[in-house]
Amino acid sequence: MASTENAGGRPQDLLFDKRRILVVWNYVEGVLDTPKNGKRREVPMSPQLARVLEAHRPRMGERVFPGSRDGFLTRDQVKRPFDRAVKAAGVPLSLIHI
């Protein structure tokens, strides 16, 4: 999933019982829209991710990952921690697709 799709995600898009995530929204530069191809899709949710998201539930609002821009994560709120983690792990720089 692209970080822009994660930014648009809602708690009801997490299908824990099916271990799937619905990708319905994309949030880019202040605009909430459908994903790039205009189609909703489902992606698998690993058991590890399910545990992490379940523990994260109390911090969810209208979005799975609420942020400071009208309730959405900004690009910098995603990119800066990701870049720090990549550097700390000593792995080659990568695009953010989770």
Task: Describe the protein.
By secondary structure, this protein is α+β, with helices and mostly antiparallel strands. Helices cover 32% and strands 16% of the residues. The strands form two sheets. A three-stranded antiparallel β-sheet has the order 1-2-5, with no helix packed on it. Strand 1 and strand 2 (20-23) form a beta hairpin. The longest helix has 15 residues, at 75-89. It is globular, with a radius of gyration of 14 Å.
Highlighted features:
single chain; 98 residues; alpha+beta; two-stranded antiparallel ribbon; 3 helices
- Could you describe the largest sheet, including whether it forms a barrel? 3 strands, antiparallel
SSE order, as H and E?
HEEEEEHH
Number of helical segments with 4 or more residues: 3
* Percentage of β-strand residues: 15-25%
Shape, please?
A: globular
Provide the helix percentage: 25-40%
- Ranges where pLDDT stays below 50 over 5 or more residues in a row are none
Please state the CA-atom Rg, rounded to the nearest Å: 14 Å
Which secondary-structure class do the elements indicate?
alpha+beta
> Quick check: average pLDDT?
87
Total strand segments: 5
Strand order of the largest sheet: 1-2-5
Distance between the termini: 5 Å
A few lines on this structure:
By secondary structure, this protein is α+β, with helices and mostly antiparallel strands.
Helix/strand layout:
Elements: H1 3-8, E1 14-15, E2 20-23, E3 26-28, E4 31-33, E5 41-44, H2 47-56, H3 75-89
